[in-house]
Amino acid sequence: MSIRQLRIIFMGTPDFAVPSLQALLDNRYDVRAVVTQPDRPKGRGRKLAPPPVKVLAEQADIPVLQPVKVRTAEFIKELESYKPDVILVAAYGRILTQAVLDLPPLGCINVHGSLLPKYRGAAPVQWAILNGESEAGITIMQMDAGLDTGDMLISSAIPITPEDTTGTLAPRLAQLGGELLAKTVKHLSEGSLPAPVKQDDSHATLAPLLTKDDGIINWNRSAFQVSCQIRGLDPWPKASTTLDGKKIHLFSPSVISVPPEKGAAPGSICAVDKHGLIIACQGDQLLVTEIQAEGGRRMPINAFLQGHALQKGALLI
Question: For the chain, where are the alpha helices, taking DSSP H only?
């Protein structure tokens, strides 16, 4: 079977999935249809907006399916009508039924944003940063009924820098995912795919969805731990603390490996000027250079200081 003879259905929804679909199109693979989630209200006007994957699919004149439910017989029948050899999945956002998994002869293959078996679940990029990992990666895996438990086909790692946020790391991983997915399809079409490797469940960790409560900063931790929290939750749900009873969000942190002044409680402001805000943590200090008041916009500290007073000794709760 030649590369272009593989009949493909692609399933994906957000920005993270776009490079995977784009890689298939760039390599002129035969994408018969794209499955994505329904349009959702967005912005202040709450107007319906299409998922990013749908926008790309329509630009490429590929049929788009947007089922409200994936468990219906009608949806399964529609998928069958495309006679897919393989279904490729990247951040679709819904659990596939066994009927879908069993439909294509080559199965369903997923682009997962971690080095499995670590960080199984919906938020692998965020949790890799939150936990202070030095690297992240992509695993192309054969899907099964479990939560990211299928056999691994191809994987590749990239470093996480001290400045990386979810907002900067996720696009790099998405691009890597597209490259590895295209490589996987090539191997599939040539019959040269490496033997699948089973995951070692004893090394598995989970990466559940995040909530706004995950953003509340505990200053009784090291500056490195707080930095990881701020960066892992940027751009959402954003790390937060309270000053004078008002919530603020903090961004762009860096660790200062110097103990705070004697008597400075964790969370107290040790210094503030136009260059940034230095905050006492447990045993060291954190420099923050961007801030956002609740309901306001994100801005550099020097711009924030023009309309807000921040004093040395103030305590962040």
Answer: 18-26, 52-59, 73-81, 98-101, 124-130, 166-190, 223-232, 301-305
Q: Which DSSP symbol is given to 315?
A: B
Intrachain domains 3-203 and 212-305 with the same fold: no
At residue 308, the 3 state secondary structure works out as coil
Whether the bond into 117 is cis, omega within 30 of 0: yes
Helices (H), 60-123: 73-81, 98-101
CATH node for 212-305: 3.10.25.10
Listed in sequence order, the residues at least 6 apart from 101 whose beta carbon sits closer than 8 Å to its beta carbon are: 107, 108, 143, 144, 145
* DSSP annotation string for 7-65: EEEEEE-SGGGHHHHHHHHHTT-EEEEEE-PPPEEETTTTEEE--HHHHHHHHTT--EE
The 10s digit of each residue's pLDDT in 135-176 is: 999 999 999 999 999 999 999 999 999 999 999 999 999 999
Distance CA 224, CA 227 (A): 5
Residue 235: asked if its preceding bond is cis (omega within 30°), the reply is: yes
3-state helix, strand, coil in the chain (%, to 5): 30, 30, 45
Does residue 177 contact residue 111 with C-beta atoms inside 8 Å? Answer: yes
pTM (2 decimals)? 0.95
- Nearest-angstrom CA–CA distance, 229 and 300: 19
pLDDT, tens digit, for every residue of 76-121? 999 999 999 999 999 999 999 999 999 999 999 999 999 999 999 9
Superfamily the domain 3-203 falls into: Formyl transferase, N-terminal domain (3.40.50.170)
- To 10 degrees, what angle do helices 18-26 and 52-59 make? 20
Domain boundaries, the chain: 3-203, 212-305
